[in-house]
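Table S2 (text version). Query chain:
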Amino acid sequence: MIAAFYSFFFRFPNFFDFLNKEADFLASLFSLCGITSAAAPTEYLKYLEWLTNKHHAGMAYLDTPYHKEMRKDPAAFFPGLRSIIVLGLPYALTSTNQMKDPQVCLISGYAAGEDYHLRIPRMLESLVDFLTSTCPVTTRPRVYTDGAPILEREMAVRAGLGWIGRNSCVISPANGSGFLLAEIFTDIPLAADQPFSSEHCGTCTRCVDACPTQCILPDRTVDANRCLSYHSIENRGTIPLEIMERFGNQVFGCDICQAICPWNHRAASRVGNTAPQNSLSIEKMLEVLTLSTDQFSARFRNTALVRTKRNGFLRNIIIGLTNLQVKESREPIEQLLRSETDPMIRYTADWALEHIPQNE
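Corresponding structure-token output:
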């Protein structure tokens, strides 16, 4: 799909000047590239149904008038919108072997290293500059990745990147689903690519069968109330007992439904490679339990882990250590129970001490 990235640039007369500076570098990073129009999404009613069924769990902001209105029509979010450039940035998924490792807890591949919300916009600054200098624009093109109120998975399908898989992720035949989506909104009228019109999950249900909480729904959406990614990142309170017991060694996000997918096995460079900082040893997790709020902020600055804040991440680490049955964690967890006033941490620590074996 790097060829798709280059085919995008060949539409501009001064492409070769840009190629000498940035395009070759960007093409080596973004494995997917396509263009779609500013047409309103056809999956909007499905989104409303998902909200009506309360599958968004505690993410109440998704059901606000603003978020619903913006998702109805991307032009409402970006007045004058003519074209949407959709890009895919690959990342290394955690592997099924790592998920069985009793000596580590896991951070989802997309959250490893520098926070992509910071990284991707910076990476695409030169591309936005190129578009602005090449074509007359009324409004400077804007880069979005995950943070805008848009239905970006449908945009990716319309731009030809892949289909929405049974696990709700966009799957590319060549790249699997291990990639982050980014969009450039612009008022430049660009020729749209052909939408991806087929789907290739067939009768395969490996992702559904492998999900420890059975959160994948028949309509290719996810019930966040049962999703490990939701509970380990977005849930700001206590986690239901049933869900904590099914966390396994996941402590930030979850790659299970992707790691088991045959399309990611075919994209061998995505599954099986260890992402930077996507696992924590027992020693490191025990150290995390001792961090103050300031120490946590300093340690994980500019990473996605700060989204949970210190107490949310401590909660997740306690759950992970409990599921791994790490006896050495009893003492620091007991210390947290004595020193912490946060009901969430106290509840999780109490649960942990009931399940972690005593040191002999």
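Notes on Table S2: The radius of gyration is 22 Å. The first strand starts at residue 32 and ends at 37.
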